[in-house]
Write a structure and sequence with these properties.
- The structure is a single chain.
- The chain is mostly beta strands.
- It has one domain.
- Helices cover 12% and strands 45% of the residues.
- It has three helices and ten strands, in the order H-E-E-E-H-E-E-E-H-E-E-E-E.
- The protein has a nine-stranded mixed β-barrel with strand order 1-2-3-6-5-4-10-9-8.
- Strand 2 and strand 3 form a beta hairpin.
- The relative contact order is 0.25.
Length: 176
């Protein structure tokens, strides 16, 4: 995969500064709204802390679902220089350019999903928010191993010791 080499050193990744060095496992949640909304990725130190990383991926729920059905999913986020106030990344899914991801603040709907799932350590499922226009969500939650390759690369790999998920899912953050 040409996207991962060679990497160029520059400033440290923002995620490297957010999460403590001792945290090699982080809780990852992928929120997939039902409808035409985009998939969100949330990474945090544990289930009880606030989100350290919250990113909207340029994939709809149906696009994400079809990509993960291949059993191997690699998402690479390459920063866009001078993207203004909101941090943005050119995003590749299994080597294909799919658009731009952007860093977000956790919204009302996503906050409800994360609070509802606070006691869930891993799994996949469906949530229905009753009495709200927010709708329904699919989710995937698990432990991700955080690997800092250098000052300019950081990766998160879904840990699936029982092979229950049956997925090989990795997210790579690059820095220029």
């Amino acid at each position: 995969m040409d996207l991962l080499a060679p990497l160029r050193a520059c400033k440290k990744l923002i995620f490297y500064q957010c999460l403590p060095d001792a945290a090699t496992l982080v809780t990852g949640t992928i929120i997939c709204p039902i409808g035409d909304k985009k998939v969100k990725l949330c990474l945090k130190e544990n289930n009880k802390t606030e989100s350290s990383v919250f990113v909207e991926l340029p994939l709809s729920t149906s696009e994400f679902t079809s990509s993960i059905d291949s059993s191997v999913l690699r998402i690479v986020l390459d920063p866009v220089p001078d993207s203004g106030i909101t941090q943005r990344w050119q995003t590749y899914c299994n080597g294909q350019k799919v658009g731009f991801a952007r860093r977000l603040v956790v919204g009302k709907e996503e906050k409800w999903v994360l609070e509802t799932m606070q006691m869930v350590s891993s799994g996949a499922g469906f949530l229905l928010q009753k009495g709200s226009d927010a709708g329904s969500f699919k989710y995937l939650r698990g432990q991700f191993e955080r690997i800092v390759g250098s000052d300019d690369s950081e990766a998160y790999h879904l840990v699936d010791p029982s092979y229950w998920f049956g997925q090989d899912l990795s997210v790579f953050f690059l820095s220029k």
